[in-house]
Structure prediction request, 156 residues.
Amino acid sequence: MTQTIDAAVAAQGLTLPAIPRPRGAFLPWSRLGNQLFLAGQICERGGEVLYPGKVGAEFDLETGKLAAQACALNLLASLSDAVGGDMSRVVRCVRMNGFVNVAPGFHDVPLVINGASELFIALFGEHGRHARTAIGVATLPGNAAVEVESIFEIRD
Prediction:
């Protein structure tokens, strides 16, 4: 039996959440050929922002990484939906973009986004490694500490 994304996440001691309801007029994922574009996800569960505020002020680096991991779990929920839960359909993570709501002077933005990158690598091994951009921003939807989006290659 093929492993599901939900089971792989559970093996990491985590829980795959329901796909968050979009906070705008967009879809959680869109497919173009074998590329799956996952819309940006903030660190929320059940419509509530888990980490509201700025990394470097309200939150330290380690908490920022947890916020990024929460974003990655939301992305994985969308990925699971797109591939019917079947991990064997995931070829690799191609790209990730991470945005961190930062206090002035906070410069460890890439280390925050590692919270999402490290989860993808733990789940997909070398196929979880990806090109990435990490950007510090003044604000995010819902005053979330982190938002992450990604692109995956999938097979039929």
Q: What stands out?
A: Helices lie at 5-11, 61-82, 109-124. The beta strands are 29-32, 35-42, 44-45, 48-49, 90-101, 131-137, 146-154.
